[in-house]
Amino acid sequence: MRIKVVCHYLGLLIVILGCFMLVPLVRSLVAGDSASAAFAIATAITVGLGLLAWRLTPVGEGRLNRREAILLVAGGWILASLFGTIPFALAGTFPNYVDALFESVSGFTTTGATVLTSIETQPQSILLWRSITQWLGGMGIITLFVALFPILGIGAAHLVEAEMPGPEAGRLTPRIRDTAKAVWSLYAGFSALELVALLIAGLPFFDALTVTLSTMPTGGFTGTNESIAAFASPAVEGIVIFFMVIAGVNFGLFYFLFWKRQPGQLLKNTELRVYLSLLLIAAVLIAIDLMINLDMAAGEAFRQSSFQSVSIMTTTGFATANFDVWPMFSRSALLVLMLIGASAGSTGGALKVIRLVVLIKYTYNQILRAFNPRAVIPLRLGKAILPDPSISRIVGMVVLYFLTIFGAFLIMSAVGTNVPGWDQLTSLSSVVSCVGNVGPGLSIVGPAANYEFIPPVGKGALMACMLVGRLELFTMLMLFTPSFWKWR
Amino acid sequence: MYIIVAGAGIVGFHVASLLAEANHEVTVVESSEEVVESVRRQLDVKTIVGNAATPRILREAEVNRANLIIAVTNNDETNMLICFLAKELGAVMTAARVRNPDYSGYFITAARSPSAARKVIRPKTLGINLIINPEVELADAIMGMLSSLYPTPGENFADGRVQIREFRVDQGALADKSLADISFPQPGVVAAISRSGKTFVPAPDEVIQKGDHVYLVAHRESMDEFREMFAPPQHPVRNVVVFGAGRVGFLVAEGLEKHGLTIKVIDENTTRCQEIAARLERATVLQGDATDPDFLIEQGIPSADAFIATTESDELNILCSLLAKNLGVSRTIITANKPGYVSLAEAIGVDVAVSSLLQVASRVTHFVLHGGAISAPFIGGKDVQAIEFVTSATANIAQRSIAEVGLPKGVIAGAIARDDTVTIPPNDSVIHPGDHVIIISSLSATPAVERLFK
Fold first, then answer.
1. Best interface-test mutation with B: which of A63, A173, A390, A392 has the largest number of B CBs within 10 A?
2. pTM above 0.80, yes or no
């Protein structure tokens, strides 16, 4: 493995990241707030170190192999999170470095779990930077990198595969760079649309911008303490719901719709149908629960349940209501949605609907085989047959997903033993929420609370969960297998 | 360009890899899932699992916007069908690998009555623009080496007026001299040098080393004088052994037989031996094992002038030719399916290894090139190409001299052919529309060269 070559590209990646710090810097200078110096220094450090790493290392002959690509992706995410911390650290936003890092990791992985106790008192430039980290992390910094630089050849395909969420997601076009360009332009296009829509709905520019930058990546940071509830506007909620749903759809389907004019791909897609049905079922069931147990009016109940269901299932994590005080059924339903997550190839996190579908079909086939062992039953997705290796990968991934949750659940339970109010639900929901890149959990990490009180060890465990969850486990965990580093 | 490659065998994979590296959009269609998986892992191309000879799969591969479809599955009939369908569905150009020589010519249907016109079916009628027959081209190349006095095949340009030939620098007269100091008896340009497995376009002050392979561009008629400079005269080839009676072996034996050479063909398969014994008029067909020295000595192989190994197995070819060399055959030629073996085989003592794959790749890349290129063979490996352009009136280089436009790095002008005259640069003569210009370019500089002629 040519670590120096990987460093070369990591350097370039960091330079791009540094360039994005210019946006909050400009904002800070215009507003004249206290964070200008922090952003100026952070930009200088990031771009400077990036350029240094880039210049001091060789380009390397030949293309990146798979291992190098994986190291580049995993390293890129870790470095982005570390460098993203610099503005927070210099501006003194957080009392300690762990908190700053938590916020940065939570941003890039589009989790949206915050440790800020009072958001509105922060300089707007800092809030803008939080949202920008989410926007970059949503469609993927590595994919953006591939779209910008035509230098990686086949290595680029490994990179995009390692970063894009979902099984078999990835290539839409013959050249992987065109795919990266297509998904990023779709992503930027939808973001622009949402911004305009929110402005029309009457939101001030800054709020519209931060909400947009957090909606499309299914992130969840807002510039307000009360999330979207602070705007108290049905129009804003409607727009945000619409774009969250969009962000949770496989972007490949939009590619076929807009570039190839094949709406059939969109309409006949199994995953999309299941995704939309689940959203609708969850919203209706929760609304009924709210009407029966909280005596809510039907309209209000549906408004709240639909926003919360969409926000949780797409793993965004916005809130318009404190769903932690909702009846047991609604809370449990939301926890299940947190586990399922959005579609493959979207910006959402968690297990992905497609894996659930495959797993259910697979289990059903096993039942059929139990009473007729000689039956040959292929696993169909729409018209296509899913080959056995793909099924094995999905089963393996799901098992690993739950093992990760179990492990982290035990760690969090140990960490929280002496914290007042900390129950098992806190441990479980914080882990499920972080691995799935959702944001809010239940109990004392619910939508009205934050993650500030968690001890540093717990924060570390959750950060690991977020990174591992964003890169869908394998990419990160491969780095911890000894044979990854050995010669072949 | 958008190119579909149907069939990801050795040839398909290699062609797709070359085209993807040249930054073309490539989709590979292949029916075996395992093969697709390995393509997906190694190349920046889109892959589709399925039978490319069906309209459904072709549509999925967006054949309607394909500039070129290359059908290289291992079945002639499938390839022809793919091209036919692709053309019907809107592909601009089609190329098919067709191995059976009966397919590559004209088909003439029998006339129903004496007065009725006979219907001629050409490959073009089937929608095939280019027929690639690797075996025929390989056999031609091998025969070209043996029927002339040159150690390696030459490439012809401008209707045969200009040639590029490879010479090995063995004697001291030329070694350790820089190109600028060498004076040739006739106008000629050293277009490329192949040194320890790498081929490159030399700078004017490049020093030739002993053991280099030098590629020379010159007028065909003056080539003999260059040959005498480089290589000691060889006695002509009379007795040739062909090992392997496959398609290539048969074509070579048949061709050499026509040239009046004495041929012995060896194959292990009795049925195949009987088949080709019936088809060859004078050649001796031997059934036996060419890895058995006793058998070879018994059959008088050591006194042959050349040993050609053409079996499907590269390893067997290499081994047998080394054995023949050891027994005293002066020239050994092998065919290699794996391009990686070409330089390896030559390094361990085989005189010439020819790869069908590189032949096909060169045909295809020539086809893909724009800008009036009419032929673009590779020179020694796949790093350097010799490209023949016919200058159009609107080309950037028309009415200007080569010195005036300035060629990019890694590019040399080889020759300019106009009517009956051939001029060899460096000179300041102005290029007219209609001139054939032969440019030698490293692969990376090819796009820049193409722009000059657009």
1. A173
2. no
